Structures are given as C-alpha cells and as structure tokens.
C-alpha cells in the first residue's frame, strides 16, 4: 500500500495527473480519491473472511510487490515508469519482486532474468512446460534486451527519502 501513502514520491517522479483532467470532475473518481485508503482495508477483510490467512497473505504480498516495486530498488531497464527490481521482494514474493524486469518485458514468463535473480514462479512455469501444461512460453530476446538498454538512460536507482 506504499503507493497510497507515499503520493509525494510518485508526483515527483511522474508529475500531476494533468493528462486526465476529466477524471477530477466525475463523481465516481472523486469518491475513489476521497476514500482510497479504505479500499485495501475492505479487501483485506474480504480476503481473510473468504480464504483465511493464506488469502490475506497473498493479498498483502501483492500490495508489497506493487509498493516496493515502484519506490525502492534498482532500475536495470529504461522503462517509462517508476518500476524497480528489489531483491528482498524478489525472494519474498517468489520472483515477482523483479518488477522493473516485468515492466520492461511484460510478455515474459520469467521475471528474474539474471541467473542470480531468484524466481520460483519461473521454475514452476518451466516444469509446467516440461509436462506440456504450459505452451507458447515467452522470454525476451537478446535484441529486445539490447533495445531496452539503449533507450535514454534513467536513474540507476530510486532511493526514497
């Protein structure tokens, strides 16, 4: 939920939402904006109610990946967003913490693109491919990786204050 609480960082990195002025006049989006903190709280209650602690943990891990993955970490690829790779989230979330890799190559089945980037989800996908339960598994090509590296250089790391 960090992106909810750390709005100044996102505004500093991305600017105000001046590209969508029509959203500020629609009642539904004004309602969402004024009650934004209650939505994940309600989701947590629902997840716990319907699935117990495992569902709640799953929901919290998803929030951690989104929060940490856009604030703290290293930027390997030149994406047009604030996504980062965070090794602690990568291990904790079974590979989903390599968020900058995911944003750079959204069609890739593998988020941990380097040998040292732990990605248990990728290991599961490889197994499913081996037993023919997963097909047409996609990975970024070397040409795609080179193209992402040669775009305008973004800052190498994001450090929140």
UniProtKB/TrEMBL annotation:
GO cellular component assignments: endoplasmic reticulum membrane
Subcellular location: Membrane
Keyword Mitochondrion: no
Pathway annotation from the record: Lipid metabolism
GO molecular function: oxidoreductase activity, acting on paired donors, with oxidation of a pair of donors resulting in the reduction of molecular oxygen to two molecules of water
Domain of life: Eukaryota
Keywords: Fatty acid metabolism, Iron, Lipid metabolism, Membrane, Oxidoreductase, Transmembrane, Transmembrane helix
Bilayer topology: Multi-pass membrane protein
Any matching Pfam family: FA_desaturase
An example Gene Ontology biological process: very long-chain fatty acid biosynthetic process
Stretches assigned to the Fatty acid desaturase domain: 36-125
Family in the record: Belongs to the fatty acid desaturase type 1 family.
Name of protein: Fatty acid desaturase, type 1, core
